[in-house]
Amino acid sequence: MISEKVIQELKEICGPQFVSSDKTDRILYSYDATRKQFLPDVVVHPADAQAVSRIMALAHHHRIPVYPRGAGTGFTGGALPVCGGMVMGMSRMNRILDIDQENLVAVVEPGVVTGNFQKAVEALGLFYPPDPASLKVSSLGGNVAECAGGPRCVKYGVTKDYVIGLEVVTPTGDRIETGGTTMKGVVGYDLTKLFCGSEGTLAVITKIILKLLPKPQAKKTMLVVFDAIDGAAKAVSAIIREKIIPATLEFMDGRTLDCLRQTAGLSMPEAAGAALIIEVDGDREFLDKQAQRILTVIESLGVLENRVANTFEESEEIWKIRRAISPSLKKLGLEKFNEDICVPRSRLPEMIRRIEKISDQYNLPIVNFGHAGDGNIHVNIMADKSDAEQMANAEHAIEALFRATLELGGTMSGEHGVGIMKAPYLSLELSSESILYMKMLKKALDPHNILNPGKIFPDDACPLPGEVK
Fold this sequence. Notes:
The protein is an alpha+beta fold and 469 residues long. Among the domains are: 119 residues, Uridine Diphospho-n-acetylenolpyruvylglucosamine Reductase, domain 3; 109 residues, Alpha-Beta Plaits; 84 residues, Alpha-Beta Plaits (2-Layer Sandwich). The protein has 16 helices and 18 strands. The longest helix is centred in the last third of the chain and has 20 residues.
């Protein structure tokens, strides 16, 4: 438990109304998208980097675990206070500090909502491509901590490709700056990339410098329906081989389409075995030709139907199908184990076949969709949570999925991170030497293991209380 003296110090730093040890408030910050729950001892909401620095120095002195938290949309438990202690909500630090239209650079605080930032830069004719599914609620600080992805990654890359500088507060309370506003910079180690994707275990992000692009002039969206999952998977590689890089290449398998028919009223051929949402962007005059090239390349792969959007409204109708998937899965009333494996694009057909075998082996429905353009599939293993055998089989299926992914040269996580959900499987992908060096970095920056402890490493213990000097 955190002493009243420390609570009072926190109130002096943040203001009394921004510190709470009330149980109701603590419950609100005890869970995330995983629906697992761990109750913190106190919740604090700092207003600026100076407050974050003072909080971390205080926590370091008293050996209090601190859990930085954005919007709580993560799927691996990265913000869960598994050791109790303090949740540090970053929502007050929500300002867009600068958008430099000449140099295509923006400076933001971590609590800025991703979708709001995208709208702000697009109003100026600029473009910030990373687009996680949670962009309407997720924060840029959380996106950086997890190195978030999204549908547009196939052409534009992930969050780390746009983070060119940071201000962070270390676990000991020091404020440091990394990178800067220039597109190049090779002075010293690249700490910016180290902190990006570190899941809040190495530092608290207090300011982000982001690279922007000119906004594409136009886009064209297509929905292509295939008679079999293999044809859709082969289509992805065929499009890339043709030297066409779509802005998005989203994949939905037959079970996903069945679910959408049942719960969202989706109209689609009964024989549909899979579908791709393909979007190209760029100069308006080239889009029709590019779209036609894509349809020509894939027409021999079992295409049953294609819909090409000619207006913004028609494009939105296609994207509504993709956005309806997760809500539709929830309506099934089953427990969903959402994994985000990634394999080389050329191995997609084989990976899909492996997943079908795992589904048959453990007698569990598995629903697949996601960012096929970069080999990132969201594999949703469905189980009845009231059935102990099914829940046990789901755990076995997850391990089988990870092993199959790694055998094909892939990774267990394309964008969700490790957190607590994938920590038990870390040694399947990383060597003992790699894990050791990661732990050495953690120890050097966080000697008392107070910043987001219990994450990434399966044997990461909660910090022991220290003597107050």
